[in-house]
Amino acid sequence: MFPDPPSPSENPGPHPPEQLRRLAEIAAGKRQPGEAAGPQDLERLVHELQVHQIELQMQNEELQRTYAELLDSRDRYAELYDFAPVGYLTVDGDGRIREANLTLATLLRTSRGALVGSRFTDYVARESQDAIHFHRQKLEGPGSHSTCEVMLRRGDGTSFPASLKSSHVSGGRYHCAVSDISQRRDAEEALRQREQLGRQILSSLQEGLVVFDANLRFRVWNPFIASLTGTPESEVLGRHPDEVFPWMRELKLVDTLEESLAGGHIRHRDVHQQHPEDGRDIWLSGRSAPLRDFHGRITGVVVSLQDITERRRIHEQLRQLNRTLESRVAEQTGEIRLLAEAIEHLGEGVLITTDHTSWRDSRIVFANPAMCSISGFPETEMIGKTPRIFDGPRTHSDSPENIEHHLERDRFYHTELVHYRQDGSAYPAELLITLIRSADGDRTHFVSIHRDLSERKADEEAKFSLGQIIEASLNEVFIFEIRTLRFVQVNHGGRKNLGYSLDELRTLTPLDLKPDLTRERFLSMIAPVVGGEKSQLLFESRHRRQDGSFYDVDVALQRCRFRGHDCCVAIVIDTTERRRLEQEVVRASEEERQRIAVDLHDDLGAVLTALKLRTEGLAEELAEPRLGREGKLGTIISMMGEAIGKIRQIAHGLRPVGQEPDDLVNSLEALCHRVHADSPLSCRLLIEGSVEIADSIVANHLYRIAQEALINALRHSGGSRIDIFLRQHADRLELEVADDGRGFDGLPDHHLGLQIMRYRAQAMNGTLSIDSAADKPTRITCQVPCKGNRPAPTGR
């Protein structure tokens, strides 16, 4: 027999497999072995099978519905995972990304396929590698969490700040949430800047600012109030007024603060006290108001304090002035008469007209003598007329509405226009019209002051003409601002010679034209003019054109004001042609020296030599000891020999270096021998390379420079050795004179010898540099281009 199956009402839901199995076993246990199943048992068994069939169908439907819900939940989770506002990823124990959502791929500007399997540290910026390493170390234990901020590197090479929140899962794996905190960083920076600005405003505010919290304890005490009261911020913040300033309770200022804290209106109080440092009386005007938060709740009290000591003093002076004015009422009549007399003798024209709808239509009631002199109209012809009598064809003034607007707003009106005299001649005039009102505020008169601007206009025209002359000048005129050194104005001559436009020059400085000068050296050079020690600075320089070529200039620099700025104006003269002529003059001078030396040696020297020989022969013929003639002839011979020697010295002095290419070396060797013989100093010539100079003028210039340097060293250095170096380079010839004595500070440009050496270097298109200081030896170097100075080697 099968047990009775449970009814549908007892088993409304589907049975689990275990329950169905248990029911089957129970039914099998109740049936006796060998017992034949009757018809009723078969029907019940069929019925039970049908019930189980229905239950299985219902379970199948339930499983299908649960499966569909799981699929839908999975899709929703995938969408939530992929499109979450933050990036999610899973990193394994080797540091490789195993899972990543689309948001992370978007943040890193790469594909999710490229992320999966790659190392997470590949997307961490170099400066954040240590931070990510410490971050992972904190995730060693199960259930551990860690948070950090690092710089992540995108696929396009850019970086952005990110916040990482990670949790350990298992097996070294951890989940990580990545958030882009760029906006937060920007907001924090903006907040920091606003806080800094607030602190700057608070510290620079020229009035006291005090803030109390809800317990009336000081929270803000700015520097102005600290200076005014002599109480530093450290002694005030966090304390109650009763603890710091007991007198505030006595003056009921604490009561005022409590009223503001209770929601009262803005309170105003003036407080008198003595300054803590000098004891002088000071007055403070204070305003207190409730401090509210964003929700309108009162969180404290804010108080602003102003030092009104000066204002109180002025008010007191005004009160005294009012009392004084009462005593001066009787004197006003005399003062008015004095004013009238002053107007009569004023050098500017004065017109008084009655009020009308406009000044131009008002009637003249007074004209002083100066107005009659300026206009040529007698006073009798002006009285009763309107100011239109001064109008003519070229008179253009503002509309009456504009004049009335200025008079009503400012009570005066200023303009310049052309007026006409009685004889019809025109003159430029300046008008200052003032509106006069009565004590009741009614308009009564106009007072207009007339000035003849003829002389001023002539001066302005002269200045304008002078500006045109300067602009058209062939000499260069530069104006540059002292603070920035940028050019603000350059005349046509400067623009033309340099090859720049004015707009291009306004982006340049004098250093762009003088590449051999540094900013520090240039500022040091112009410091005497900028500081007012000198009114003018004169110096020589070289300018570089836009095409890269150079030209020599003389500069006259002085300080000036230009368009409201401190500037320097430089008048520059191109000395290229002058230097060429100077070189020609020097060359001609050297050639003349050579000619004189040759003439002295070849002509006069030969004559004196011949005369000496003839005198010697005559002496031999007339040798008679008893007559003493041989002594006289001997004297003549000696004098002639001395004359010949002096002529040779003069010729050598005029032309110390001869025409041969190697004469410079020979002359310098002779100079060293003379110095060594005539002084205790050691002097030697050191030659590097094959030095041969074909141009005798250049050779004589170099000799003179070496000679002058030796003389200076002998006189001033106090050393024991002088070395002359003569070096032949591929592109230049270098002469250097160095001693081991004491030098000098600065470059004494006023020294004639140094000026001559520089002049000779410039005459050879060369340069001269002086390296000297008080605590080290002096080194003078002259460098000359090699072109034309060195012929083919002769094997010396």
Q: What is the rounded Rg?
A: 54 Å
Share of β-strand residues: 15-25%
* Helix fraction by DSSP (H/I, runs of at least 4): 40-55%
Shape category: flat
Poorly predicted sequence stretches spanning 5 or more consecutive residues: 1-14, 788-796
Main sheet overview? 5 strands, antiparallel
Describe the structure.
The protein is of the alpha+beta class and 796 residues long. Strands 2-1-5-4-3 form a five-stranded antiparallel beta sheet. A hairpin with a 5-residue loop joins strand 3 (145-153) and strand 4. Helix 21 packs antiparallel against helix 22, helix 23 runs parallel beside helix 24 and helix 24 (696-717) packs antiparallel against helix 25. The longest helix is centred in the last third of the chain and has 46 residues, at 576-621. It is flat, with a radius of gyration of 54 Å.
Write the layout of secondary structure elements.
Elements (H helix, E strand, L loop, with lengths): L16 H14 L8 H44 L4 E5 L5 E4 L1 H6 L4 H4 L13 H9 L7 E9 L5 E10 L5 E7 L1 H23 L3 E6 L4 E4 L1 H7 L11 H4 L2 H4 L2 H9 L5 E8 L6 E12 L5 E10 L1 H19 L4 H14 L3 E6 L9 E4 L1 H7 L3 H4 L17 H11 L1 E9 L5 E12 L5 E10 L1 H19 L3 E6 L5 E4 L1 H7 L3 H4 L4 H4 L5 H12 L6 E8 L5 E13 L2 E10 L1 H46 L7 H26 L8 H16 L3 E7 L7 H22 L3 E8 L3 E8 L12 H12 L3 E7 L2 E10 L11
Parallel strand pairs: 21-22
Antiparallel strand pairs: 1-2, 1-5, 3-4, 4-5, 6-7, 6-10, 8-9, 9-10, 11-12, 11-15, 13-14, 14-15, 16-17, 16-20, 18-19, 19-20, 22-23, 23-25, 24-25
